[in-house]
Design goal:
Elements (H helix, E strand, L loop, with lengths): L2 H11 L4 H19 L7 E6 L6 H15 L3 E6 L10 H11 L4 H8 L3 H8 L10 H16 L5 E6 L6 H11 L7 E7 L9 H8 L6 E2 L5 H11 L6 H11 L3 H13 L12 H6 L3 H9 L3 H13 L5 H8 L3 H13 L3 E2 L5 E2 L2 H10 L2 H17 L3 H9 L8 H16 L3 H13 L4 H14 L5 H12 L6 H17 L3 H13 L5 H15 L7 H12 L7 H17 L3 H11 L19 H12 L3 H18 L4 H17 L2 H16 L6 H16 L3 H10 L15 H11 L3 H17 L10 H9 L4 H18 L2 H12 L4 H17 L3 H17 L3 H18 L2 H16 L5 H4 L2
Parallel strand pairs: 1-4, 1-5, 2-3, 3-4
Antiparallel strand pairs: 6-7
Length: 904
């Protein structure tokens, strides 16, 4: 295509686009103009949609020109392609590689900081190493964009034909675009709305969101077409001829320009007498007409065009020549003819003039020939050094033929896809490998790899594939144990804890004595022990107690069993000293053993999690905090930004909640919930975060906010089958009680108590149902209330931590006789003063002060209330602060010291 023809195409596409261009100008003004006005840059999202040929590409090209030439912006550009939809992060690489290519490796490392190894493989600047968490990769790309957007030159990101972008790029774009108000950059996207069904769900949600109104492109009016025709045929074209051009093309700018160009080539007179010839001429620019025109150029040219269509975008002439079976000279001649025919454009790399042309030519290739060419393309791409992942999009199109070499290529490609954070692409390769099919002795291994590829993203899919792998005879013993463990993890991530426990028990019985069997037995105890409705809880506790009684912790299997024993003892409310001793044997010099770290794949993050949780509930908060901060660091370094990082934030939130740093706890928990929500609704991670945040809001005295949050996040029966922190049913009862709904609270707490007592779970910090129930029934049945409270105090005494004993005494005092209440509260203050849990200490101080005030012991009351107020303020316990101030004010009114000394 000549320069003049390209200008004519662009000019035609921009006819009647004043409003569309104005939208781009205004967006660029908000981005760039604010700097000179002393205000921050205002980024945004601009969407253009329309059918093929309506000028979306021309609009983006003009926006690019305005941004670069008029506004001096940095512009990143990419285009989706039908032929590269299966190539993960293809559009992301188009966007960022031009900006990264001029930089040295050190400069790239500095730019990406800790995300270099995580996002680098997806960006194509770091060789793939090992599996990456998709969310971590997306976060790394976010970081890169934020760094580029912070430079002096405003940043504009343009993506054309987004409906054909690869799913990984679209998913990143969909999530990132929701944060554009936080980032000083403009993103402009064009797409065909009728082809969005194949796009990533996150991107579909983005473009149909109420706040994102796309600019919809319309066909040209007859007046605009009339002007185009008269510009091409000055002082010659008559009105009937112009009207027929519009009728044939429907006002489609691309087809209009093509039809006018063909009319000039044929030497048609732009008069009414030529109008009947336009319809046949127009058909030659699309569909079968285009194919017929191509065939008239000769067999060699047609074959070269087929090769280009198979390769898709960024077509290297040497690869196209190889695929077409011709030498460089003949290939160059064919390329020239295709350029002249307005089918291809470009020199170093070729591309089709319009996606409609590429689609029509690709569809015209005979199926058998197309399949063979894809096979040859895969070989050519591999030989060119582009790797198995790049070749895989062609291998996916090859017909199954029992080719073991192809199976191996697809398995290698799947590993490369996982290494760039593209598990869906890996899954497609392995599913295609199964269709080949693989040799019978390799089928189980392929199914195992397929199951592992979907472990973090599609637990149900993982379950199906790993179950199939385990049903086959050719898995090695090592792979069978690992497949079973991963299958149990998938069940657990899918909230199927009973199935998780059952499958490891079944496979453990078939496994000979040794490390593999011990690993499966440990998994069985793990998945059983975190079930809320565990059927044989008491028997399991006895078995694990007998098994671990004399284990010294010589290897990671023994350490795992010891950790499970300690966690079970904590939930059951056993002596905390012994519980901590078990955890000490599960560690090596107070730290996680090698191979049991947060990112290990053999045991999973669940084992270190239960160690940290147990420390948090046994008053070893410093050890718990150290562990969970280590988790956050490990997950961030490894790019595990999904559920793992969300859990780590929740567990840190638990530590802050136990310590009484309620504002820090709330912030950490909200961040954990934000991270968890990116994975989708209804996952187990949401329950821990939600329960801890509701508990924290109640501690801060924000009952209405806790209730609103509970309603918004589905905190209602049926609760998750997994143990959460704190116990969900006990928390639900406490929330009802705080709202004054005693009858419902009593029913909820009684049900929780029956369930927990049947299973011997008596930890009064994790599940304080009895103490809350005592308060709920105190008015109507004070004797029952005292019985419940005293029993809880005994359980707390068995557990023995200062927090458990002190808090149980404080709560028991609420339902005790006045003289007993003072004694219990005084003891509670003594215990909680030694506790690291400052909120509970503040509660005890204020409660003791109020009781002393009621007893007329004004000086002692004021002293307790002053201290309680100070500690409550440190904890950011707003409700307790108000209570303490009110009580202290009452003490002042009754003559205790000057008001200024007593009340702040």
């Amino acid at each position: 295509m000549s320069g003049h023809q390209r200008e004519q195409n662009a000019s035609a596409a921009l006819f009647e686009r004043k409003l569309e261009l104005q939208a781009a100008e205004e967006a660029l003004q908000r981005l760039c103009g604010t700097e000179t006005e002393g205000r921050p840059r205002l980024g945004g999202l601009l969407l253009y949609n329309g059918e093929a040929g309506l000028g979306k590409t021309a609009l983006l090209a003009e926006t690019r020109r305005m941004a670069m030439q008029d506004r001096k912006c940095t512009v990143l550009f990419a285009r989706g392609s039908e032929s590269t939809q299966a190539v993960p992060f293809h559009v992301v690489r188009q966007l960022f590689q031009p900006a990264l290519a001029p930089l040295s490796e050190d400069e790239r490392k500095q730019l990406l900081a800790g995300w270099y190894e995580i996002a680098g493989p997806a960006l194509g600047i770091v060789p793939p190493i090992g599996p990456q968490d998709p969310q971590g990769v997306r976060d790394g790309i976010d970081w890169l964009v934020s760094q580029l957007a912070s430079r002096p030159e405003p940043l504009v990101v343009l993506i054309d034909d987004a409906h054909w972008a690869d799913a990984e790029s679209l998913t990143w774009l969909g999530y990132f675009a929701n944060r554009l108000r936080e980032a000083p950059l403009l993103v402009v996207i064009s797409y065909r709305p009728e082809e969005l069904d194949d796009a990533a769900p996150v991107f579909r949600d983005l473009v149909v969101a109420r706040g994102n109104r796309p600019v919809e492109l319309r066909p040209l009016t007859p007046e605009a077409v009339n002007r185009l025709v008269r510009d091409a045929f000055p002082d010659q074209a008559d009105a009937p001829f112009c009207r027929e051009v519009w009728a044939v093309t429907g006002g489609n700018p691309y087809e209009t320009v093509e039809l006018i160009a063909k009319a000039k080539e044929r030497g048609l007179k732009p008069l009414e007498e030529s109008a009947p010839l336009l319809r046949d001429l127009g058909a030659a620019s699309r569909g079968t007409g285009l194919v017929a025109r191509l065939e008239r150029l000769g067999t060699a040219v047609t074959r070269f065009a087929w090769a280009a269509a198979v390769l898709g975008t960024e077509i290297q002439p040497s690869l196209a020549a190889n695929l077409a079976g011709m030498g460089p000279a003949q290939a160059a001649e064919c390329a020239d003819k295709l350029r002249y025919a307005r089918i291809l454009v470009g020199a170093i790399d070729l591309e089709f003039v319009h996606p409609l042309i590429a689609t029509a030519i690709y569809a015209s290739i005979p199926p058998a020939t197309r399949t063979a060419m894809h096979g040859q393309a895969a070989w050519s791409v591999t030989e060119a050094g582009q790797g198995a992942a790049a070749a895989s999009r062609h291998l996916l199109e090859v017909h199954p033929d029992h080719d073991s070499e192809l199976v191996e290529q697809l398995r290698v490609a799947a590993r490369e896809h996982l290494a760039v954070g593209a598990p869906d692409a890996a899954r497609r390769c392995l599913e295609r490998a199964l269709q080949e099919p693989p040799p019978e002795e390799e089928r189980a291994a392929v199914l195992y790899e397929l199951g592992c590829s979907a472990l973090l993203t599609l637990p149900p899919t993982t379950v199906n594939h790993l179950r199939s792998a385990l049903s086959l005879p050719h898995l090695t013993e090592e792979l069978r144990v690992d497949a079973t463990y991963r299958l149990s993890q998938a069940y657990a991530h899918n909230s199927q804890l009973r199935e998780a426990a059952a499958v490891v028990k079944e496979q453990a019985e078939r496994t000979p004595p040794g490390p593999g069997r011990m690993r499966l037995q440990a998994a069985h105890y793990l998945w059983q022990g975190i079930q809320v409705e565990e059927q044989d809880s008491l028997a399991r506790s006895r078995r694990i107690a007998e098994l671990t009684e004399r284990l010294p912790g010589r290897d990671n299997t023994e350490r795992t069993l010891l950790a499970l024993r300690g966690f079970d003892g904590m939930i059951r409310g056993e002596d905390a000293v012994q519980v901590v001793e078990f955890m000490g044997r599960a560690l090596v010099d107070g730290r996680l053993a090698e191979g049991m770290g947060w990112t290990n794949t053999e045991w999973g993050f669940e084992v270190p999690s239960i160690i940290g949780i147990t420390f948090a509930y046994t008053d070893r908060l410093d050890q718990a905090e150290e562990l969970f901060k280590e988790a956050v660091t490990a997950f961030e370094i490894s790019g595990w930004s999904g559920g793992h990082l969300a859990f780590a934030h929740d567990f840190l939130g638990l530590v802050f909640r136990r310590r009484g740093e309620l504002d820090e706890a709330e912030a950490m928990l909200r961040e954990g919930l934000r991270l968890g929500k990116r994975l989708g609704p209804g996952l187990p991670i949401h329950w821990d975060g939600a329960c801890l945040l509701i508990d924290t809001l109640l501690a801060r005295g924000r009952v209405d906010e806790a209730q609103a949050f509970a309603e918004e996040n589905g905190f209602r029966p049926p609760y998750t089958p997994a143990i959460v922190l704190p116990d969900a049913a006990s928390l639900a009862g406490r929330l009802l009680l705080a709202r004054g709904r005693k009858k419902e609270a009593i029913a909820e707490l009684e049900a929780a108590g029956r369930r927990l007592e049947e299973r011997g779970r008596h930890n009064t910090i994790w599940a304080p149902w009895a103490l809350d129930l005592a308060l709920a029934v105190a008015d109507e049945d004070p004797e029952r209330a005292r019985t419940l409270a005293d029993k809880a105090v005994r359980h707390a005494a068995v557990f023995g931590t200062d927090t458990a004993v002190g808090d149980a005494l404080r709560r028991a005092a609420l339902v005790a006789e006045p003289h007993e209440a003072l004694v219990k509260l005084e003891k509670a203050v003594v215990h909680l003063r030694r506790s690291p849990c400052k909120y509970e200490f503040a509660e005890a101080l204020v409660a003791h002060g109020a009781a002393l005030l009621e007893a007329g012991k004004l000086p002692e009351a004021a002293e307790r209330l002053r201290e309680g107020l100070e500690v409550a303020e440190q904890c950011a316990a707003d409700g307790l602060v108000e209570t303490a101030r009110a009580a202290l004010a009452s003490a002042v009114c009754e003559g205790v010291g000057p008001t200024g000394d007593a009340v702040r």
